[in-house]
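Limitations

Structures in this collection are predictions, not experimental determinations, and the ligand pose is part of the prediction. Treat each record accordingly. The example that follows, with manganese (II) ion as the small molecule, is included so readers can see exactly what is and is not provided: the inputs are given verbatim, and the output is the predicted complex.
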Amino acid sequence: MLITFKQAASKLKAANKILITAHILPDGDAIGSTLATMQMLRALGKSAQVFIDDDVRKNLHVLPHFEEIRRPVDGEKFDADLLLILDTSPDRIGNVAKMTDAPILNIDHHVTNKNDAGDLYVEPDAAATCEIIFKLAGELNVKITPEIATCLYTGLATDTGFFQFSNTRAETFKTASELVNCGVKPNIISEQMERRSAAEVLSMRTALNSLKIFYGGKVAGMFLDLPTMQNCDSTEGFIDLIRVIDGVDVAFMISERSEKVCRVSMRSKGVDVSKVANELGGGGHIRAAGCTLYTTLDDAEKILVAAIGKAL
Ligand SMILES: [Mn+2]
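Predicted complex:
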């Protein structure tokens, strides 16, 4: 059920033992928003714990309290009176979904979130879930410590491509400005987020070598097969290498995660790629979306290129 911002805040006020989670394949906004909310709720005297059912990119391990994030072990239960799901709908939280039967509070900024498994506050205009959590801190009267600010700024910065993407709005800068006032060092976060291993940069080269152009230059794609992926800690930002090509409206990357499991990311300058992703069982934003195709890399390419062609 859709609820208002104030209702979401009072659900949090009423809860005492909160299990916090976000999506698998976690990004800066998923980790930043969960860690910030955990600290905020603890500051209010509540018990709060973050569980994420996936590995987390090394760059994000530097965030305050990162070491407290837990991954559920087989059949593990958690005593909670609220399951807080951030930055995604409840179908992308892996085994955390099985840890509790507590009511769900879902806070997100993905326009494709149509969750009806619990209470949903969705703000599609927010640049990041961290932008919503910042407002929530105000509503809950929580003081934003430098540690909380660092987590929130990281989510805000990474989800906007460091304030370059179309989701960047005036409020995003206002939020960023206030976070800097709370003690964030933007240059340090930028340096930490852009760090890459040599293996990752070599994988970028492999990705660029696979570049293909479709539809007379309007669409560009990159392909990473399983052996390449096994040597690659993260493909974050790879797609930006081809998003910039002159005349390209939709850029995509397909990475083979295991046999017949291909992860698709898309970025666009005009086409609504959230619709393309939705049609293929995924979701996201108008200009940044993704899905998983359960087939070979070759077939995934055919399916995706046809679906993008229809949307052009
Ligand atoms: Mn996000």
